[in-house]
Input
Amino acid sequence: MEHIQTRRFPAGTRWRRWNRKGWSAFASLHRSVTIGVLAVGMSILLLATQGASAQTADTTAVMKTLRIREVGVTGSQTAPTRNAQSHTPLFDRKAQAAAPVQTLESALRLTPSVDVRERGGRGAQADIYVRGGSFDQTMILLNGIDFTDARTGHQSHSLPIDLDCISGIELIDGVPGVGAYAGAVNIRTAPLRPTYVRFEGAGGQYGYGYGNLSGAVTTGRFSVLGAASYRRSDGYRHNTDFSNWNAFVRATYDGGRAGFFDLQAGWQDRDFGSNGFYAAYNPDQWEHTATALTSLRWTKRAGRFSLGAAMSYRKNFDRYDWKRGTALNRHNTDNAGAKLWADCDWAAGTTTLGGDWAFNHIYSTNLGERLSTPEGLYTHAKARHTGNIWLRHAKSWQRFDAMASAGVSLTPYGRSALWSLSGGYQPAEGLRLEAGAWQSMRLPTFTDLYYSSPAQINNLDLTPEHAVTFRLGAGYTKRCWTLSAQTYYRLGRDIIDWVWYEDSAESPEAWRGKWHSEQSSRLNTFGAEFSGGYAVTEGLLRRVTLSYGYITNSRNADVIARSAMDFMRHKAALSVELHFLRRMSLVLTGSVYDRNGSYTAYPVVGNSSITEVRDYKPYFLLDGRLSWEKGCCRLYVDATNLTDTRYCDLGGLPLPGLWCTGGVVLTFGK
Output
């Protein structure tokens, strides 16, 4: 396989228009690159710099086999989604291959755009919060396909993929309509090489074990990537053990005149002890989930027109035990989707007409409407349909590009307008300025609508959340240096949250001393993010990255909300990569976290009547990885939380202290 290289081009040698070309989907980074051969199965352009992103919400077109030698590329990309204004890189496999990260959650923890809140170690259970939003306000995409769970955002990113299959992760801004209230996180998979077999085995403290077998085969127009893994631990404290099975396959085929086909499928089975996870005073909770998903996407180019279609399905089972061994709640959810779109390239730019549809259904023991006749173990059920129809137009000039989209969202709550506007300007080589605004919304989850317990009261009168977001961004790349800055302001209304009512005469009698699901407030969020990096391929110091994120918001002061006010106020991270003694590398990452808000602590285990309100405290984490590599073999030792910091992300749940593991990776192929 020939490698994709990058180099600077003199002005005037770059292509300025991408209309009516079969390779027009490569217009992406707004900077110059030189493309070699892309083998089937590759889903990204290898990046010119550490901070660059492939910027594709849909990765289909860049997986074709194209032989474009020594071509200067520049332009702006339009993807077949309602729209994607900008793509903020969160993780890049090539840039962070040596970093001390082992799970999707650890890969996202350092980025300033995302707040990963874990309840247990090594990704046993975690939630993803984007730019001050909640875990229910984040859309989760796998290779551009929406697999967000309609029951609860707790399950959305429980995807059957391991880090070795993930080529990159990006935050997509500007997706209007239903789903991506705060943003969309797109996880992209691709083979490490056209044809290879890879084995990884690891073990360490707390009975930790991990085994992974993956590989790819590429022949002619066909490529397939497959992986299977098992991860387990005895737990770092009482009842925090877990086990996790993953299996994933992605196959692509270029059928020539028949079009390009992209199939993916996966399965996950996991269980974990949930000491205090959902009620901090109960150490004996337990949960088991099983997920199966699949999608098929087709694209075809016909002259100035591009056609595309996609369909997807996700099945999820969930069993929750209040006391381990005795099932309390069971859920069985189905999420199906379909999408159609058509692009037309003409003198005035590119115009897209498209639509998508989603179907959500749940069987449950306590979520939904009561069934007249139980369906097996399930006594409740509920279903709903949603859809979006949109029209988008994009136009690029030598230094400018602009995009506008408009449409309508169709939900059980009625029709809502969707729109977005964005523009970009490149005043100088390597410098890009961006601005955008868009409308977004989120439907109540089945949990928001129906979940009741002795401490919680549901609310059937909830309606969708709405937001309008404004964003400014700037990025600069020169040789081995990258800099970026972003600021955003989100105006949110009808925000859904669980609100606490004191046991007093002022509170409604039925709500006293309980959490109630409601949406009585507005929530305006302001944030700023800065990042910079230095990367070279030779010498002792190979890579340095520095990032900082700041968030503040305003909300009604007369209510006690469960999650809206405990946002990550300050977040800073520094990563340093060193190479020495020819085959050795050392990566250290240090991060500082300062969370707003407070939580209710239960000093006496198992006793919910004795409580204390405590503020979240700032904390510092230091992680490291020492590696040795020769030929097909790589050995590594990881140490997370080297300073043995005592900290929590949610409700006072203590997370692991120092945790050491070691492993071996064997890769064979070409």
Q: What stands out?
A: The longest strand covers residues 514-535.
